[in-house]
Amino acid sequence: MKRVEIVEVGPRDGLQNESVLLGTAAKVEFINRIVAAGVRRLEVASFVNPKKVPQMADAEEVLKALPRRADVTYIGLVLNRRGFDRALAAGCNEIGMVVVASDTFNARNQGVTTEESVAAWLEIAAAAHAANIRAQVTISTAFGCPFEGEIAPARVVELARRVAAGRPHEIALADTVGVAVPSQVSELVPRVRAALPGMPLRCHFHNTRNTGIANAYAAFEAGVEVLDGSIGGIGGCPFAPAATGNIPTEDLLYMLERMGVQTDVDLDALLEVGRWIQTQLGRPVPGMLLKAGRFPKSAQREAALAASLPFASNPKSQVRA
Ligand code: ZN
Q1: How close is the Cα of 306 to the center of ligand 1, in Å?
Q2: What angle do CA 55, 239, 105 make, to 5 degrees?
C-alpha cells in the first residue's frame, strides 16, 4: 500500500495569513485537535519579526504550552539565524528554513538576497546538526514569482543542489503564491530527484488559482511522499488579497484515501477540526469537503449512529418482546 505523510501547516501558514488574530490558547487547542486527528508532523509557529507578522508574535508561548509527545514533531519556521536560535530555545523538534528561488521575493520576504539566505541556511544546518535537531529547507516560489514571473526549473535544481550541501532532513518545493500547474510539478520533481538521488522531497501547494489539488496529485504520481495541507484551506496569499490559502488538508486526505493511499489521519476527526477553526475565525473556510461531506459515508460513523439508535435500522426490532 502506498503511503503519504501529511504535514499540517494551518497553525503557521494558515493563521499567519488570516486577518483574525487567534489567541495563544486557541492556537494551542487548534494544534492539539490536529494531533488528536492523527497528524504527527505539523508547523506550529514561525519565528519571524513580530512587527511584520503579528499573528506569530506568541510563537514561544505556543511552544511552551504544547504537550510533548515522542511521536509528534512540532516544526518551527525560520528565515534566518536569529529565528533558528529562537526556535531552538523554544523547543521545536524540527526547523524549517526558507530559501526563495526568486531573488526579488527573497529580498521582500526576508530582507536579504537568495545567496545570503543560502549561506544562512548552511550555517543553520550546521548548528542544527550540532544541536541534534532535525532541519529541512523549503525552496519558495519554485513554480513562479509575483515579481519575476516564471522561474526556470534549472534555477530550482541548482538551488536544491546548493542547499543539499547542508544535509537537510528533506527539501520542499513550494508554490508559495499558487501559480503552479501539474505539468510543472511533473517536470520539476524528477529533475530535482535526478540531481539529488535519495533526498526526501516534500511539496507545498497553495490553491490560489484552484490548481492546488491537481498539483498535489501530480506530486504524488511523481513519487513525492510528503505533502503539506492547511485544514479548511485557511490562510491566503499576500499577493492576491482575496485568495484562498494552502490546499485544504481534508480535501487532500479525501483524494488520497479514496485512491487507497495510507496517511494514518482520521478524516472525520479532521473535518471536525475544520468546523471548529471555521467558528474560531468567524467565516466560512474554502475547504470543499466541509461543504459537500465525505463519500461514501464513514462506516465507523454509521456503525456508531446505528449503535446509538438500536432500533432504527431494523423496523422489526422496534417490537419489544
Ligand atoms: Zn505557503
Answers
A1: 41
A2: 90
Q: Which residues surround ligand 1, an ion (CB under 5 A)?
A: 13
Q: How far is the CA of 298 from the centre of ligand 1 (A)?
A: 31
For residue 134, count CB atoms less than 10 angstroms from its CB and return exposed for 0-12, middle for 13-18, buried for 19 or more. Answer: middle
- pLDDT tens, residue by residue, 187-206: 999 999 999 999 999 999 99
> Which residue do the cell numbers 459537500 mark?
292
pLDDT, tens digit, 9 for 90 and up, residues 227-280: 999 999 999 877 778 888 999 999 999 999 999 999 999 999 999 999 999 999
Q: How many independent structural domains does the chain possess?
A: 1
Q: Is 317 among the domain residues?
A: no
Q: Is residue 49 part of a domain?
A: yes
> What DSSP letter does each residue of 12-49 carry, written as one string?
IIIHHT-SS---HHHHHHHHHHHHHTT--EEEEEEES-
Residue 296 lies in a domain: no
CA of 76 to the centre of ligand 1 (A): 14
Give domain status of residue 280, yes or no: no
- In tens, the pLDDT along 79-107 reads 999 999 999 999 999 999 999 999 999 99
198: its cell numbers: 535519495
pLDDT of 313 reads 47
Choice among 92, 145, 203, 237 that is catalytic: 237
* 92 assigned to active site: no
Q: Domain range holding 181? A: 5-269
In the three-class reduction of DSSP (H, G, I as helix; E, B as strand; rest coil), residue 295 is classed as: coil
Cell digits for 31? 494544534
Residue 190 maps to which CATH number?
3.20.20.70
Residue 54: its H or E element = none
- Cα-to-centroid distance, 10 and ligand 1 (Å): 10
pLDDT at position 241 is 80
Ligand 1 centroid, distance to 205 Cα (angstroms): 7
